[in-house]
Amino acid sequence: MPLVVPNWLAEHVALSSDADVDSISAALVKVGIEEEAIHKAAVTGPLVVGRVLAKTPEAQKNGKIINWCLVDVGPEHNTNTIAGVTAEQLAAANGPASGARGIVCGAHNFEVGDYVVVSLPGTVLPGPFPIAARKTYGHVSDGMICSTAELGFGDDGSHGIIVLTKPFAGNPGYSAAELTPGQDAIALLGLGDETLEVNVTPDRGYQFSYRGMAREYGLATGAAYTDPVITLAAKAPSATSDAFPIIIDDDAPIRGVNGCDRFVTRIVNGINPNAPTPSWMKQRLEQSGMRSISLPVDITNYVMLDLGQPVHAYDLDKVVDPIVVRRANSLGFGTSGGHDPERLTTLDGVDRLLDDEDLLITDSADPDLQADVSESVAPGARVLGLAGVMGGASTEITDTTTNVLVECAHFDPVSVARTARRHKLPSEAAKRFERGVDPALPPAAAQMVVDLLVEYAGGTAGPEVGDEDATVAPQSITLPLTLSERIVGIPYSAETIAQVLTSIGATVSDTGHGSVLVTPPTWRPDLTEPVDLVEEIVRIDGYDKVPSVLPAAPGGRGLTPAQRLRRSAARTLAEAGLVEVLTYPFVGPKDYEALRMDPAQHHGARLANPLSADRPDLRSNLLITLLDAAKRNYQRGLTDFGLFEIGLVTLPLISSPNAEDGSQLVPAVGARPDAATLHAIHGSIPHQPRQVAAVLIGDLEPSGWWGSGRRADWSDALGLARRVSARAGVELTVDPAQAAGPSWHPGRSAVLVLASDPASVVGVAGELHPKVAANFGLPARPVALELNLSALAGASAGDPVKAIPVSAYPVAKEDFAFVVSAETPASRLEKAITAGAGDLLESLALFDIYTGAQLGEGRKSLAYSVRLRGADRTLTDDDVKATRDRIIAAATEVGAELRA
């Protein structure tokens, strides 16, 4: 995000004397620019100019020599009493009547009489590094004499003290007449600037510059704004016939738009390659988050930050004309017969394979040919850089560069954005081009670069000026004068509309038919529709003038049954101790394989432009991403925990028979699609039910002094599933005839169906397959559940849960133990007992499972506690006996025997 330094902003707009980052932030918020952060000053506290009065070398036992110094730091900071220094010694050092400070210093590159920078006790240097008086080497050092590195200027290679009358860190130094002991060094060196970081929306590229930010501040406060481009453009010379040759040859434009519609070149000869970057420029670059590299490169970066126009500088002696702007060629150039794809080593040192859509800057030298540059070489054979993104290493500015070719161009935002994302190269230039750069800027930006190179690098501006210009003037927009009121709800006069639109740089003329014709400025490519102008009107006139009116809520509205169920399910699982997470819905073949699923059969919709190439699909179940979150938590030290997630899944197209192929349905954005197109689009969307999934890892009940804990098992997952379904008022049963699937343990998992419709599968619960646990790096025997909330909501149909009447009559208790085959599921026997008991059954619970030699091999005993109660009478012994006989008879029909 852009960083705003107040004193730099003040060069383009009049700031009040008390303006600071807080007031600037408040002003920018009024016009829709949000504050991201405020970065405090690099140095705080008493940092002052000092004059060395005495410097006494002292050898130490470790062989090191330190300097015991007396320093005049001004009357308000000096002291008359220095430990170990007599008044006579202080007077002999020509100290002022007010005294001096005693400071220990290990550097030696300064002498008596030099002006230095002194941080007194209470100063906080970058780091942060607080300064205090401390005893060292037998003296009390009452402050510190500072170097460039200690003040945050970076290491200038001298490893020594700043002597203010000599050049340091790009600063040419100060005359002795400009310096006074005790003078505020923070203001002198510009170390007190606070920086404002702001958030810029993607459609407002002009705000990525001080030119744009100053304009916005002026609009917010009414402060006088001066556009620097006006002066620069008037100074810039016209194109000449002897300019460096440029050929724009985009034979594969994206969306039918040429990738480059303007290319300006200027030449500066005879620069000093070792000229230092001025300290003020270096400081501003660092405050804006950019490091200083060399003077020519720093100048291009400075101009980009100031005006918003990315600039690239080439070593002119390494470039062979003509420069050709073209798309990459996958067949390549060179000696290999035209079969090797083109590559480029960018300035960051990375070798990149180029794509046919990449727009390139090229010239006519090809190192592969090993030919002298005077020979005939195919134009555009060598790649110099990715247009609008980053230059190549072959023609970069070095410490031997004396002649510079300056490039200021305008590139298509979409082309630059695709290239930057394809190569994962979000450069500062790409950030601006993809948001839209003013196509009228190149001549002015080039002139500013030339002026700075001439002034600070000692170069001479060449007379050759190139300007290949194919830009198109912005389209005028007809704005009805009543549209603003219709959209915003408050009236705007014709005068207000004209004043606001003129203030942003647009030209406004009255059509005489209740509307105005508005031509946006070249730096506002986002203004293309009347509603865009309405947005500017309300933004500049003030969002605070738009009243906040709370609409009246109509009666009888509220959460839908599905929404209530979603909240109830989340509350149920949270009350059970699980933590809700939110995972990204993107998965790939490896994720399905980890879940032991066939990617070809189970993947959801495939994204045309995935965020990651290895995860191009939308998930078809929640466990596939929830287990990944469980893995991450387990690897970070959690051993006993539960997670759950509620979200949408995209079922495979083979599971959505009504879905049509919608890959070719791309309606135009200029108008609403017709009914047939909308119907086709909706028909192409696969089914996306809402599901809930949970996973339990480790102990469900912790161990401690009270005893051992209990590990979560399949019954806990099944219990959670039934608790969730109970919130929907839906009863679930286990279908023993269906297998849970390859992701689940074959003997400790269950398929869940609706009790009212056994053919409707709504989920799975139980223990995960051991290989799944291993694939996700989880401990042994994790348990999980997954339920289709949409199906549960449909089954409940939103009916209110009915209260069960409480009977006042006593309960009759009966226990049964039935012997059945080991393969018989308990649910089958429970259905038989329920049918036999009829309306008198109040509750049924399995309380024991027994297997042993007494029963015989392949048999088990299931013991149930049955509670009977009459709704209208006390049950008699005959009632209970008859019911007991019916239960035994029903159990016998499913192959059960009453155990004696």
Give a short summary of the structure:
With 900 residues, the chain is an alpha+beta fold. 26% of the residues lie in helices and 24% in strands. The chain has a seven-stranded mixed sheet, with helices on both faces.
Overview of the structural elements:
- With 900 residues, this protein is α+β, with helices and mostly antiparallel strands.
- It has 6 domains: 3-41 and 193-226, Phenylalanyl-tRNA Synthetase, Chain B, domain 1 (2-Layer Sandwich), CATH 3.30.56.10; 47-189, Beta Barrel (OB fold (Dihydrolipoamide Acetyltransferase, E2P)), CATH 2.40.50; 234-469, 3-Layer(bba) Sandwich (Phenylalanyl-tRNA Synthetase, Chain B, domain 3), CATH 3.50.40; 477-545, Phenylalanyl-tRNA Synthetase, Chain B, domain 1 (2-Layer Sandwich); 561-663 and 678-796, BirA Bifunctional Protein, domain 2; 812-898, Ferrodoxin-fold anticodon-binding domain (Alpha-Beta Plaits).
- 26% of the residues lie in helices and 24% in strands.
- The protein has 24 helices and 41 strands.
- The chain has a 7-stranded mixed beta sheet, with helices on both faces.
- Helix 6 (228-235) crosses helix 11, helix 8 packs antiparallel against helix 11 (442-457) and helix 15 packs antiparallel against helix 20 (714-727).
- It is extended and about 120 Å long.
- The N and C termini lie far apart (80 Å).
- The model is unreliable at 369-374 and 655-659 (pLDDT under 50).
Taken as a percent bin, the fraction of beta residues is: 15-25%
Number of helical runs? Answer: 24
Instruction: Please provide the count of β strands.
Output: 41
Flag low-confidence runs: 369-374, 655-659
Q: Helical amount among residues, as a percent range? A: 25-40%
Full CATH superfamily name of the largest domain: Phenylalanyl-trna Synthetase, Chain B, domain 3
How far the N terminus sits from the C terminus, by CA atoms, comes to 80 Å
Cα-atom radius of gyration:
39 Å
Oligomer: single chain
Strand line-up of the largest beta sheet: 27-30-31-37-36-35-34
Gross morphology is: extended
Q: How many domains?
A: 6
Mean pLDDT, to the nearest integer, reads: 88
Biggest sheet layout: 7 strands, mixed
Name of the level-1 CATH class of the largest domain: Alpha Beta
CATH topology call of the largest domain: Phenylalanyl-tRNA Synthetase, Chain B, domain 3
What CATH architecture of the largest domain do you see?
3-Layer(bba) Sandwich
Structural class: alpha+beta
